[in-house]
Structure formats: C-alpha cells, structure tokens
Amino acid sequence: QVQLVESGGGLVQAGGSLRVSCAASGRTFSNYALGWFRQAPGKEREFVGTISGSGSTTYYAGSVKGRFTISRDNAKNMVYLQMNSLKAEDTAVYYCAAASKYLGVATTRKDDYAYWGQGTQVTVSS
Description:
Blueprint: E1 3-7, E2 10-13, E3 18-25, E4 33-39, E5 46-51, E6 58-60, E7 68-73, E8 78-83, E9 92-99, E10 115-116, E11 120-125
Parallel strand pairs: 2-11
Antiparallel strand pairs: 1-3, 3-8, 4-5, 4-9, 5-6, 7-8, 9-10, 9-11
C-alpha cells in the first residue's frame, strides 16, 4: 500500500514556473514508478509524465516535453514535477500516482497506476 499527498499547487502567470511535490508513505518506494497526470474541467484525466523507480528513465507527454521535468528522491519518498513556461492550457488538477505492476519500470498507461493522490490545483492565468 502506498499513500500519496500532493502539494505546491497554486496560481501562476503564463510564462511562469511552479513546482508541485508528492509525498509517499510506505516501504520499498523505489519499486514504484511514479507518474503525474492532470485533469482539466470537462476533460478526461491525461498523462503528463512518469519516472522509473530508480529515477533513471522519464517519459513525457508531447504537450509538456521540454517544459516539465520529473524528479524523485527515494531517500525522502518524494517525487517532484517542475513546470516551466506555463501556459493557460496547463490549468488543471494535477495528480500523483504510483505503479508497482512492472516493479518500478516507467509506464505511461493510466490503468497501470494503482495508487493516486487527492490532487492539487494548478491555475495559469493568461
């Protein structure tokens, strides 16, 4: 079992930066791939990015590649999403999720993630 708690959301102007964090409880944190997803009003939850259990592999959605960076600190059971050059269309609730299905191998499939946080709101004003 893993419990996830996001923090760091807020209001930022277009072109600005924001970092959201996710704190995880539970043992063997490095056995979990950690993903970030987002959901805008009236839209389905979509993949943003993921990082493998070791932190050596990351994948990003095309819409955020080059602007967003995922990192993790396994000693602190933390994962981060650094968001730069934010756009109005990045406005959404951002969710942290954990997947153990492939023992830490990064996956972009939403259905592979068994554990989810409650989400944190990110609003980008234009």
